[in-house]
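TODO from last week: model Probable peptidoglycan glycosyltransferase FtsW.
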Amino acid sequence: MDVLQRTKGDKVIWTIVIFLSLVSLLAVYSATGSLAYREQGGHTEYYLFKQLSVLGMGLLIIYFAHRVNYTIYSRAAQIGFIISIPLLIYTLAFGHSLNDASRWIRLPVINLTFQTSDVAKLAIFMYVSRQLSRRQHIITDFKKGFLPIIIPVAIVCALIMPANMSTALLLGASCMILCFIGRVPVRFLASMVIAGMVMILLIIGIAVATGNPMRLETWKKRVEHFVSTDKDELPYQVQQANIAIAGGGVIGKGPGNSTQRNFLPHAYSDYIYATIIEEYGIFGAFLILMAYMLLLLRSIRIYRKCPYAFGAFLAVGLSVTLAIQALTNMAVNVGLFPVTGVTLPLVSMGGSSVIFTSLAIGIILSVSRNVEDLEGKRIEQERIAKVMEQNGMQPAA
């Protein structure tokens, strides 16, 4: 009971978190039934309990993160950015390879893997929010206002890009939106786009010149398959996702009745949205979409009410990146974007992704809690002033 009383922040966002967590449990349990039976000796609930433990840890992280005064995250932003640089470099050199990409670090003692890009994304958003809030008076100055903000973003994106171009592009786009909200001139943002294109060409050129194609062939094939008009040339996972979506119809086949989960690669992570559509139909897909849009709208509401620039930028920046990631995953699942390795936040099965998403939501709720406290104090002061006025008393000078 004491925990519930100490739980503050936007109640709608808390409701969205609970809703997405329940959806995650249902979808992961359905999508991993056959996998668990094959790999865990018939224990079909193995991945369900694993996801339940991760989501439980995520809820604890959200709770403790939202109890922290968000101004502390401003001081942690610089430390997080400094730590993320060597982590990304280490991942490129020695990271655990998955799908021909070095994206993971394996911790030797506890044998746990996590994506260093998740650490970098959270750190860079806090860092950019801090810099935007501190440089509002000189934000139109390219050298003093814009460069100190954009150079760290460029460094992080450049280190993520060789192993995970989709994440780097989404991170760059999210930072650009945050800079736009932070009143950075449009001409500076245009230069940011041009610099990003040059960076991509430079990385591709280095890969070709050194004879180390990295993921160049994978990027090329994904773009070719996306623009191809030949249905037979579609990647296997895209074909299976299309079959799942077509079979879902309006109301779906019902919970646990997906057939494509047995054929669709990564039906529990990258393509979990297609699995949800097959089981819950367009109606279920719409509810998931609305949940992320509502999260964004509530965060914008926090942004508008927060009196301090850092908190406002932090809330809207983190919500924008979560919404963009969710929309990208959905677009890939329904064939509107080329294939990427982007997961559906708080829904896809995973460890580090859920943990860092939970931390981001906890920070948003921390800002919301501060806004509620300030609003409560203002209302109380107005009530006291009104009572004193009614009693013919003058407020103290």
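Done. The two ends are 40 Å apart (CA to CA).
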